[in-house]
Amino acid sequence: MSRRRLRLRLPGLRLLRRRLRQARWWLLDYLYAWIGQTRAFLSRARPADFRSGHKAPIVIIPGVYESWQFMRPLIQTLHGHGHPVHVVAALGRNRRSLADAAATVAAYLERENLTGVIIVAHSKGGLIGKQLMTTEDPDHRVSAMTAISAPFAGSRYARYWVVPSIRAFAPANVALHDLGLDHRVNDRIVSIYGVFDPHIPEGSELVGARNIRLHVGGHFRILGDPATVRAVLDTVTDATAPFTRITGPGTVRRVPDSRSR
What we know:
- This protein is α/β, with parallel strands linked by helices and 261 residues long.
- It is built from seven helices and seven strands, in the order αβαβαβαβααββαβ.
- Strand 3 (117-122), helix 4 (124-135) and strand 4 (142-148) form a beta-alpha-beta unit.
- The protein is globular and about 60 Å long.
């Protein structure tokens, strides 16, 4: 094969490799989600199991159609590092509107008299956390949030769904659009996301926040990646000592691959 023909074929080969890699990530993502949902259904863990600890309190907000049990591996890690971890069981499988869900979490914070709270959220949970910080936290109980794969700019795929809880992620949704225009709390948010998210083609980068992009693909599988766990632990530690942060708001920190994918 001539060099000229080889040069013409290289872009096509690169595109094919990228598509194959994305297809693999997509498959592994749904496999992780299925295993996670099954594990959550079979789990006998109770919210009270994770409420002890001497460090800053953490409140977990999962994604849509996810119970708090879906994030149990990360909860166990955070609890193992000394944090009391709270879950809001009243959210159920998290199908409520952003406003209703944020009010539910706010009521929990007030009832438990929690202050200095760090939210750790996945997907829709990141939107609920931001809604809470902007409209439902007059006493400033929440100090920071780490959001994983949150659709801050929505997802163009959501408009094809008839289910209201999914259509709410459409970029044209009024509540989501208004939340996106409100930048008041963005500098207290860390957004962690991968290089490929099959559910959020717009990505999860948030203007004014601390953005961390990991070399992993998937919307669900990222929760179990060692690089994600390290990033969450680091950002939670940073949130308790904000003046020691090295990476400033609005920057994108790329974390190297932690294992073979």
